[in-house]
Amino acid sequence: SNIEFKLFCETPKLIPQIKTILLHNNCSEVPVYANLDEQLDFAITAPGTNTLKLALHKIPMIIIGYLNIWVYLIAKYVLRIKINFIGLPNIILNKDAFSEYIQPNTKHLNTISNQLIQLSQSKSDLDQFDQVFDDLHNAIKPANHFYSQITRLI
C-alpha cells in the first residue's frame, strides 16, 4: 500500500512557513492541516501535548524530538535527570507504548525507517495499538471524572 503524507500543524500561523519549506524541498504536494479532523493512519510527532491528542484520537505514532544540546547535556550529565519517557501517553501509562527517539542519530533513522516500512506493509500491524488506546482511556478516566466534578462547581 502507498503511504500518503499529511502534515498537521496546531499553530495555523506557521502553515505558510511550512508550505514554503515543503516547496523548497520538492514536497509541495504534501497537504498541511490546521485541524486533527483529517483521518490519519499513523503519525510522526514531536514530544508535547500533541502526543496525548493523537493517542486520544487513537492514532498510532512515533515520537521524535531534539532538545537544545545544552539543555540535554546539563539534564543528562550535570543534573543526572533520568526520565523514562518524554511522550505524554508513555508517561501516563508508564510504558513504551509509542516508540520515542530523542536526540536521534543515523542509527535511529534506520530503525525509524524500518518501523515505518513494516507498518506501511500491513494495516493489521496497527491493531497492536488497540490495547494501548484502551489502557490510556482507562488511565485518564479518574482525571476526566475529577475535571467534570470541578467544572460543575465553577
Q: What would you call the shape? A: globular
Structural class: mainly alpha
Low-confidence parts, pLDDT < 50 over ≥5 residues? none
Strand content: 5-15%
Descriptive terms for the model:
154 residues, mainly alpha, three-stranded parallel beta sheet, two-stranded parallel sheet, 5 strands, 48% helix, globular
Report on the structure:
This protein is mostly helical and 154 residues long. The chain contains 6 helices and 5 strands; from the N terminus they run βαββαβααβαα. The protein has helices at 15-24, 49-56, 69-78, 88-93, 106-121, 130-153; strands at residues 7-8, 32-33, 43-45, 61-65, 100-102. The strands form 2 sheets. A 3-stranded parallel beta sheet has the order 3-4-5, covered by helices on one side. Helix 1 (15-24) links the parallel strand 1 (7-8) and strand 2. The longest helix is centred in the C-terminal third of the chain and has 24 residues, at 130-153. The radius of gyration is 18 Å and the shape is globular. It starts with 6 loop residues before the first strand and ends with a helix. The mean pLDDT is 79.
